[in-house]
Amino acid sequence: MIRILALCALPVPMAAMADTVISLYPAGTVVPLPRPESQDLVEGQIFVFNISAPTLEVIRPTKEAANGTAVIIAPGGGFVGLAYEQSMAVARRLADLGVTAFVLKYRTIESPDDGTAAFMRRQPSHVSVDPDQHRAAHAQRCSWTNS
User: What InterPro entries does this protein map onto (predicted)?
Assistant: First the structure.
C-alpha cells in the first residue's frame, strides 16, 4: 500500500496524451447526455464531466521498458466527473515503469451547471473568497435530481 501511495506522489508530466483511444460502444449506439462533455478545474485538477461515450485510453511504455504487465485505471469522481489529469499522470508514470496503462473514461451522470462555480472562479475578489478553498462552489456539482 505504501508503494502505491509513493508511486502516486512522484512527479510526472501533466500533459499526458493517450497513445490509442478505444471506443467501448459500437458507433452510433451511444445515447448522448443533454449537456456536452466538458472539462473544468476542481481544486486545481482537471476533471471531465458529462461523458456519454466511454473509452479506454491506452498509455504504452517504450518497447525497451515494456515488461508485459497492464493496469486499468478507473478515475475517481463519484460518477459525476472524472479526475482525468491525476489518472493520466499515474498512467504515464506506470508507462515509465514498463506497465501498459488503460485509463477508463466511463459514462457519468449529467452534472448541473447553475453558474455558481463559474462565478466563484471568475470573481473571487468581489466576494473575498479564495475559489480553491470555497467548497460550496465544488459541492454543487455533486447533487442531482430525479426529474
Answer: AB_hydrolase_fold
Backbone CA torsion sign across 40, 45, 50, 53: positive
Q: The whole model's pTM is what?
A: 0.63
Give me the helices (H) in 29-134, please: 84-96, 116-122, 124-127
Q: How far apart are CA 58 and CA 139, in angstroms?
A: 31
- Structure confidence by residue, pLDDT tens digits, 51-65: 999 999 999 999 999
Sketch the domain layout of the chain as residue ranges: 9-111, 114-147
What kind and span of H or E run contains 57? strand 55-59
